[in-house]
Amino acid sequence: MPKGTLLLIDDETSLRQLLTRVLELEGYTMLTAPDARRGLELLRQHADEVLVILSDVKLPDGHGLALLPRYQQAAPLAEVVLLTAFGTIADGVQAMKSGAFDYLTKGDSDDQLLVVVERAADKARLQQRVAALEKKVEAQFSFEAMIGHSAPLTQAKALALRVAPTDSTVLLEGPTGSGKELFAQALHQASPRRSKPFVAVNCSAFPKDLLESELFGYRKGAFTGALADKRGLIEEANTGTLFLDEIGELPLELQAKLLRVLESRQYLKIGDTKPLTANVRIVAATNRNLRQEAEEGHFREDLYYRLAVFTVHVPGLNVRREDIEPLARHFVQLYAAKLRKRLRGLEPEALRQLTHYNWRGNVRELKNVLERAVILADADLITVADLPAELQFLPVPSASAAPGQPDRSLRTAELLHIRQVLGETHGNKAEAARLLGVAVTTLYRKMQEYGLKE
Prior knowledge:
Elements lengths: L3 E6 L3 H13 L2 E6 L2 H10 L4 E7 L1 E2 L2 E2 H11 L4 E6 L4 H9 L4 E4 L4 H31 L10 H13 L6 E4 L6 H10 L8 E5 L5 H9 L16 H4 L4 E5 L6 H13 L1 E2 L8 E2 L3 E6 L3 H6 L5 H7 L2 E4 L10 H15 L6 E2 L1 H9 L5 H15 L4 E2 L6 H4 L17 H15 L4 H8 L3 H11 L4
Parallel strand pairs: 1-2, 1-3, 3-6, 6-7, 8-13, 8-14, 9-10, 10-13, 15-16
Antiparallel strand pairs: 4-5, 11-12
Helix pairs in contact: 2-3, 10-12, 13-15, 17-18, 18-19
């Protein structure tokens, strides 16, 4: 199995041939060049493939140490091993300081060369995997990856992008399920802290005492059961971003401690007397009106103003209905792939029901509804029958009505009324028949006549 690609730059033809033969027998693919110019040309052409660059120090058109920055610029993830006929300790130290992986003297044993090359290749492979993972994370959690082009969403993203490169505290306001954590992750990915930790905590998920120890950590012996030091989430997020979801649920006692972190960048672990420095960017989120909470005394006013240095309102799904269709198609593809089902999308009627529904749970609710629908789907399209009862029987304008004109036919009125009652009873046919004043058999007949799914 091929071990990867190496680039050998050396003006000695016999040495190039010898090292090429040795390294090819070890399973490497070799690229060779007699001088720096042709070596750099090859490197630019194969930058994504080359793991290790083996370069002579004295080339006809350049010195290896001076060429190091050019090698690193052309292939940032590759490692460089310098080769010399007359090695000195001083040159080796200088090479390592300049960023070379190692510095070898020509004529040393092949075993030593192979060990160094293998170690350098391992490091380069790891760097490539990390870079690929970072690229994947960036693509998944970037503002560009957010689905939808409605005006409210576009405005929110534009505002968030303005503050992302700074260290300013950001408060994300918006209804439950609207995607505030996704915005927080995108803010982190668009900031200079992107390669550092992103730590999220839901302030409503812990009792007060447990939340304090989770956030700030504690020292051994601080209380019964504290058998060892514990790192808090603020410490875990050091140099990165700390996302405090449902910040409105933070107890008043902890609000004072958080305020100190924001004002002085310092905090105390439970049971400690020596303050620690908190080098974190804080992003908070709430579905409550924190300004009103502060005015009513339920939230510290000074903390509110420290958190709301820059506020971004994340819009709910009901004010960005044009985004429902692309979101729905995305979730169907996502869950179809996960469940290994062949689905082409949604029937127009099912999409119409989704578009007109009142999404109290916003994107999170839409996502859950479509996961369920994909599980239930038997055909290659999601149908109305695959949706929950409250969506199946949701009264919506008829697709056959003229644009801009309501459909006033008696048949449509009866259909809409039956749908409304079925929606109110969550699909309970017996209760719906009682409210409609008809027999259950009559209701079933009408449902069949109008094509309503049972």
